[in-house]
Specification:
The protein is mostly helical and 812 residues long. The chain contains 31 helices and 22 strands. It has a three-stranded mixed beta sheet, with no helix packed on it. Strands 6-7-8 form a three-stranded antiparallel beta sheet, covered by helices on one side. A hairpin with a 4-residue loop joins strand 21 and strand 22. Helix 22 runs antiparallel to helix 23. 35% of the residues are buried.
């Protein structure tokens, strides 16, 4: 404005950031009054703020319908002139709280606060008061409040410090510091931090009075309300950011505050990072800066504690690993685990997330197997460097923070170590998949035996591992005989004792150095709860013994001997001892194999063996092997010293099963290489068809060593053909397919017949594991079953029932 002019009521003007509506004012540069002096009503630079507030008050009063004195509603030049100390009319200043005028409409009201009261009047009987905020005496200059200080602004008490307060503070770029809380700024009566009143780069001096109130309320409420608008969080964050970068890192002031500010940043991150990617990035990076400020040169030997949040590898972890690489030290397991858990380049499937505790333990085991003391990495050229560009607009145009860490390599530039760690993670994931699937169906079943059995023994709960320890103490003193249901009760198992459950427990026991007979791991059938079992000490996996041809023939011999012992209806202790004596003489077998055979013999004491099951096992044995086995069975007829007709009759059947002449059984009993004679008074025992010669029987008993040697010679010569007996082939088939199905659908079918009923949700998991479509797979199984057995495999949709005939057919 080059000349003074009068604004009419439709015009408005903004002076010093204050918009004055309604016109009816004179605006400078100059205007002469009637007395020749400067027009008092002229709004000049000196008078703008006071007059604007005065007009603002009148406007709010009118909008409320309040009565306004004529002298105030229509101020005369002399009245307005008295607003300045330069006039002759008396004016007063005070710092006493003055009552708040009521406001209405869209006007932003002032609040009750420590304000300057401006009084102006030409009539001593009436004083008009108008309030202007002033800086509290303790904040004449801006300063940082520590955690022990508090402040009250606009009636809101804010404790805990960690903010800048004062009338003026220059930002890094020369402007006004955005985080500065200026007590002179107006604060509205209304405003809440759940509402957005700020722009992208909030500045306390520029935001609205409502936004200021919302921000102060958020500070007073603990700075932790999860539903707060992120703009207020950023405004507070700007102050922490400035304190770190300008006061601590650059000026080296208040170093002892750094740990406290670090904790505050991590608390803010935990509360607000998920709601704002921008805040997540800035806060996470600033945390890294703080953590990096006081790091040692050998961080890999220290406990990193809780790592800070970060998108990639947290800086302390990067530095620790880089220092280890620099020093030629293998990466310790704890750092490798943290790397595997935090690197976004490493895939972590559901089992890793769902079973995090078990994954950590399993990772330690698998990592040691793969790398011993740790993975060694050759130093790479890329070095660690950290840059931070502040979020605050007060740093806009200025540099941020750049940190270097000497010659410490940055392993995030490498791919080979990531691939190696991925292999370990994948190995752990595969081992955890059954456990994870069980937990998906049974979230509260973490300690159920069905869940525990899917884990390696070392990761079992303490109570289950204690049960294993108790059993191990018992088997160290000899064979332990009990029933299947009793064994499972030891582990507080519930539900059906399925084959899968029995095999899982047997595997776990074996891992703990405990063997079990019958060999459920090598069987296609599930034992019944009442079936006997024998536990014994072992250091060799059953698979290694089971696949030994010599052991296979020895096991057949034990089964035939047990059948003979059962012929009279009583497998006596004398017969068992006699059988064990023979087993002890089989020196061609190792001690572990002989102990397993003794345990099996103990099982057979209480369970009979069907000759029909033995027939298939011996079909492919050569003549010499069958004759040796037959001679061993003949010796068992004499085990208790009294051969009975029932035993001799059964021996005839055994010889026929072995493809030998019936008369050979008699000759083997009579034949013997006598080295001693029974007493002359020994009685003769008659049997149908022949009479036993007691002297020859005695000779045969004493020839047990020769029989054992004969069997041993056969085993050593490996006379068992490469193609195993029929039943052994059934246990270890060359092809895993059944019903003409492919491998995936055959595996699906075998799993189905392990139970009579399945929930559809369970089979969806199974189908996903086998990479097949559930409905298509069920249809294929039913078609194959109709073609092969003229009956369907399944029935129903949910639950899905398995045909009992199929279960019987495929589990035999």
């Amino acid at each position: 404005m080059k000349t003074a002019l009068r604004l009419d009521k439709s015009e408005s003007i903004t002076i010093e950031g204050i918009e004055i509506p309604g016109g009816e004012v004179y605006v400078e540069p100059s205007l002469t009054a009637t007395n020749g002096r400067v027009e008092p009503a002229l709004v000049g630079q000196r008078k703008a703020l006071f007059y604007a507030i005065y007009r603002y008050y009148l406007h709010s009063q009118k909008s409320q319908g309040n009565n306004v004195p004529h002298s105030a509603a229509n101020p005369s030049p002399s009245h307005i002139g008295q607003a300045y100390p330069a006039t002759s009319t008396s004016s007063t200043w005070s710092t006493q709280p003055v009552s708040q005028p009521q406001s209405g409409g869209n006007a932003a009201p002032l609040v009750e606060d420590e304000l300057t009261s401006f009084s102006s009047s030409t009539n001593p009987a009436r004083v008009d008061d108008y309030k202007i905020p002033v800086t509290p005496s303790e904040f004449k200059t801006a300063r940082w409040l520590d955690k022990s200080e508090s402040i009250t602004l606009a009636g809101i008490e804010i404790s805990g410090g960690k903010v800048y307060v004062g009338p003026s503070l220059t930002a890094a770029n020369g402007g006004v510091e955005p985080s500065l809380i200026d007590p002179r700024k107006n604060v509205a009566k209304n405003g809440h931090y759940t509402e957005r009143h700020t722009n992208y780069w909030p500045n306390y001096s520029d935001i609205s009075p409502q936004a200021r109130r919302a921000y102060l309320l958020w500070l007073a409420d603990g700075r932790s309300a999860p539903d707060a608008d992120i703009g207020y969080v950023f405004l507070y964050f700007y102050g922490l950011e400035r304190r770190i970068i300008l006061d601590i890192l650059r000026e080296k002031q208040a170093q002892d505050e750094l740990p406290e500010i670090a904790l505050e940043l991590k608390r803010l991150y935990a509360t607000y990072a998920d709601g704002s990617n921008s805040f997540k990035m800035y806060c996470g990076q600033l945390i890294e800066i703080v953590d990096a400020a006081n790091q040692s040169s050998r961080l890999y030997v220290e406990d990193l504690g809780d790592l800070p949040p970060s998108y990639g590898l947290p800086l302390p972890l990067r530095v620790a690993i880089g220092q280890a690489v620099r020093d030629g030290v293998p990466i310790p397991m704890r750092l490798a685990l943290a790397w595997a858990e935090r690197d976004p380049a490493i895939s972590r499937k559901t089992p890793v997330q769902r079973c995090s505790d078990e994954f950590k333990k399993l990772f330690a085991s698998e990592y040691a197997k793969a790398f011993g003391q740790g993975l060694k990495i050759a130093p790479n050229k890329t070095k660690i460097r950290l840059s931070y560009r502040p979020a605050s607009g007060g740093f806009m145009g200025s540099t941020g923070v750049d940190m270097k860490f000497g010659d410490t390599p940055d392993v995030t530039a490498l791919t080979a170590p990531v691939k190696k760690l991925q292999a370990v993670v994948d190995s752990c994931t595969k081992l955890l998949e059954p456990y994870s699937r069980y937990l998906a169906r049974n979230p509260e079943g973490r300690h159920d035996l069905e869940a525990v059995l899917t884990l390696p023994l070392e990761f079992w709960p303490d109570t289950s591992r204690q049960a294993i320890g108790d059993i191990k103490l018992k088997v160290n003193n000899g064979l332990v005989v009990l029933k299947f249901k009793e064994l499972f009760a030891t582990f507080k198992a519930t539900g059906e004792l399925t084959k899968d459950k029995q095999q899982a427990l047997a595997s776990a026991l074996e891992a703990g150095g405990i063997g079990i007979e019958p060999d459920v791991l090598g069987s296609n059938r599930a034992s019944k709860p009442e079936d006997p079992l024998v536990l014994f000490q072992t250091n060799i996996r059953a698979q290694e013994i089971r696949d030994n041809p010599a052991y296979k023939v020895a096991k057949i011999s034990v089964e035939l001997a047990a059948a003979v012992a059962h012929a009279d209806g009583d497998f006596s202790e004398a017969e068992l001892n006699h059988l064990n004596l023979y087993i002890d003489k089989w020196n061609h077998l190792n001690i572990e194999s002989r102990l397993r055979l003794k345990a099996y013999a103990q099982v057979l004491v209480n369970s009979s063996v069907a000759l029909s099951s033995i027939k298939k096992k011996v079909e492919l044995l050569d003549q010499q092997t069958r004759e040796a086995i037959a001679a061993f069975a003949a010796a068992m007829v004499l085990a208790d010293g009294v051969p009975l007709p029932e035993e001799v009759k059964l021996l005839e059947k055994i010889y026929l099963q072995l493809g030998l002449e019936r008369t050979t059984a008699y000759s083997d009993i009579h034949a013997g290489h006598a080295v001693a004679k029974m007493p002359a008074q020994s009685p003769s025992v008659s049997a149908p068809g022949f009479t036993l010669d007691q002297s020859k029987i005695a000779a045969l008993k004493e020839s047990s060593d020769m029989i054992a040697q004969r069997l041993a010679a056969i085993f050593v010569e490996d006379t068992v053909p490469e193609s195993a007996p029929a039943e052994i082939r059934a246990e270890h088939p060359q092809s895993n397919t059944i019903l003409g199905l492919d491998e995936s659908h055959s595996a699906f079918a075998r799993l189905l017949v392990s139970r009579s009923t399945w929930e559809r949700a369970e089979l969806l998991d199974v189908a996903q594991d086998l990479n097949i479509m559930l409905d298509g797979a069920l249809e294929k199984l039913n078609e194959a079953s109709l073609d092969e057995l003229d009956t369907t495999f399944t029935d129903g949709n949910d639950p899905i029932e398995i045909n009992a005939e199929m279960i019987e057919s495929l589990t035999q």
